Amino acid sequence: MSHFAFVVPPFLGHLNPMLALSAALVEAGHRATFFGMADMEAAVGGQGGSFTGLGGITHPPGRLASMTAHMAAPGGFGLFPILADMARTTDMLCAELPEACRARRVDGIITDQLEPAGGLVAAHLGLPFVSVANALPIRRDPTLPPPFTDWPYDPSPQGLRRNRGGYRVADLLMWPMARTIARQARRLGLGKRGSLDDCLSPFADLTQIIPALDFPRSDVPPTVHACGPLRRTGPLDDVEDLRRGDRPLVFASLGTLQGGRVDLFRRIAEACADLGLHLVIAHGGRLNATEAASLPGSPIVRAFVPQQALLRHAALAITNGGLNTVLDAAAAAVPLLIVPIAFEQGAIAARVVHAGLGRSLPRRRLTRQRLSQTIREILDSADIAGRARSIAASMATAGGVSAAVAIIEAVMRTGHPFMQPEPMSSRSARLRPA
């Protein structure tokens, strides 16, 4: 059995899929240890293995609060503190993780695509490693727009030119991280590296988004595997207390970072009240009691709800486009209305629209009337309902956490890249080691 180091950004949207994966590996007889700043320990909490704190000087307890504040208010110059935070964390991990892995006799590393330290340290130590896309896959594809844009898929010459321009902007924005990667690669004796792509695993690269919910990708390496959502298995929670009669249920969530946007929740509540829909809101602990009570139409408002279980009863999910909520809705065959706020949410919304799974509305031009009209259009659309069922069926065959565990075990067993048996766009659940 193997001992895996998990290296992941300290935010719940990235941690939760990795906790599901680590728990499955532990159930299979392996060991798992999460390495990171002290504030991560509360989230890990023994759910999927143990925890080892790093960065006691540079990332002491309380550091995550300031990082979360930057993430919750991005946009404009707000991106620069976020990118600086990312670079500082990578610096810390590259400095401290190698010795920590040696001391705890780690056999392999499982790393989030957005934390390059995992790949750099694994290469330095000569360990096999697997990268996981807990957000949109970062692997650059010239036929796709950059993941920070809401541009539609456009393989025309004009679209490809726009993509190239977008990637030039992306390279400028990512300069702090590129400089950190290059410096740490030299220090760790790895030669020239300078991008997140350079730190992806040559053994196996797992993605949660499946081809049916993505733009068409060109020249996908055979080590890329679309596993679908990484979720814990087991019985779903009872959500009868969240349902009200036979009214169609709408679930609204803006994730754990943006859940304090009471004005946006108010507009959603008004539109659902106008249409006679039952609304359940999850705000991630970001609304106070007064704000929650002020929302019109008597919605059920909670900090957290059993999302997967509730979505099984939902007619529609309204979200800012966080990948985990989108994947959970898609797996439950629930159409989506996305109101992007930040980061890759516009890009995810563009993919949902491209896949025919729902609609997207810009936040700055959102009105009660426009929301109501769009909700009604989605609920009345037989085409969207059909696409939702088709995508859910594809996700069910992708394998999820079981497929991910099988791939990771094959990498550890053979020490070689794990190759998909056929192109990712037509891949079945069959698995074959290289």
UniProtKB/TrEMBL annotation:
GO terms for biological process: antibiotic biosynthetic process. The keyword Transferase applies. Keywords: Glycosyltransferase, Transferase. Pfam families: UDPGT. SUPFAM superfamilies: UDP-Glycosyltransferase/glycogen phosphorylase. One of its GO terms (molecular function) is hexosyltransferase activity. Gene3D superfamilies: Glycogen Phosphorylase B. The keyword Oxidoreductase does not apply. Belongs to the UDP-glycosyltransferase family. This is Glycosyltransferase.
